[in-house]
Amino acid sequence: MSELVLVLDFGGQYKELIASTVRGLSVYSEIRPCGMDINEIKRLNPIGIILTGGPNSVYLPDSPKCDPAIFSLGIPILGICYGMHLICHTLGGEVASGGSGEYGRVKVTPDASSSALFGGAKEPFIALMSHRDVVKRLPRGFRITASSAACIAACEDAGKKLYCVQFHPETKHTEGGRAIIKNFLFGICGASGDYKLDDYIDTQIKAIRQKAGNKRILLALSGGVDSSVCASLLTKAAPGQLLCIFVDHGFMRLDEGDEIEAVFSKRKLVFIRVNAQKRFLAKLKGVTDPEKKRKLIGEEFIKVFEEEAAKHKDIPFLAQGTIYPDVVESGGKYGATIKSHHNVGGLPEKLGFTGIIEPLSGLFKDEVRVLGRKLRLPPSIVNRQPFPGPGLAIRVTGEVTEEKLKVLRHADAILREELERSRKRPDQYFAVLTDTRSVGVKGDDRTYDPVIALRAVMTGDFMTCEYAPLAHNVLGRISSRITSEIPSVSRVVYDITSKPPATVEWE
Length: 507
What we know:
single chain; alpha/beta; Rossmann fold; GMP Synthetase, Chain A, domain 3; 3 domains; nine-stranded mixed sheet; five-stranded parallel sheet; 18 strands; globular
């Protein structure tokens, strides 16, 4: 059994990124509710605990709390943002509103005396801040270990193994943030780094076999990384028991449905393609709200499965390629719903199946790709461009029509074709057909057509990202091709917004 670090969830948007970073350092982590029972914590015997950020003010009566007894267990604890506020507030310090707060990249200066958390570093660094409340007074026994112009940026009581940072070391926006978490894990918690994905594969294979036995399993196979890795893992665990259904909702990229069928129809599994394009388009007629689009597509997606499953007897289990960020972004007790996912928010209570198998639900996107390589999936699948479940329906802003989808497919294909020639590609790139119209001129005619927006980002975790600084000649070539080859487009723009404050997708 691997050493465990608990990540207690207080509703922060980076909770899964914290856990992913810890795992990336070869230390196993689990995200648990902030109110986790103290006896359960003792039973699990973690080598460390991390308290996440969150959107609440710790001094309000309904704000999330943890059992104060955890601060007396002698287990090293790292409080991040709200986690820092909670530690200081609970132990007798003062937390209050800091006025306008700090948001974005902020200069942080470590204290002159060294801290194990910073590895003895004393030079200023840039960190991501996202807070309004600040620690006004430290609890007894604590000392300041770093400051910004507006707040106490870090503090600690090393004797009690309690460490706090106001900023977010888990994001790539914080210089040396990964090193700070590494210092906590190895220098303070004494981790040995014994977590490997091979262990995860073995554990899931055993779990799948124990749950499914020799019964058949039905899987939604989209051809994306998540469902493909899920199919591979299921086939390894239960060979000959898997029936894969590809629901072609009509929102795929250019020729993608045919490519998926060509790849998976040759593999050792039963592959069925359901052509439901007209059905999904009819469902979205007149719908413009992105959250409603997702919900409707999710509901229709499940209906198609129920109808197809009824044609095949003795299939008690439904498998899904759900990964952890899908679950987190769809909302929780303390977190706001950022966006719903078709395999999370749209599930009806009665599926008609004995149970659901989600072998990837504890993994993050980077781990899923590594898992795919370990399962010997081809690079064309493992390195496939991320693609949302609702597909192009949420890359067409406003109402979705067949004509709009045709325009977007063509523009997206041009973008992908051009960028795939590049030696260094962005991590994700796609086109968006906006609902903004723009005046243009083609030949001697005035036009008033929709605007195409291009999106290309650099990211390692898909929870935060920076826009990719594409060369102007590349952008110019893409724009020229789109406006020349697609008659109904006369303007192309490039999205240079990072996440946060934006999301990767527009809807």
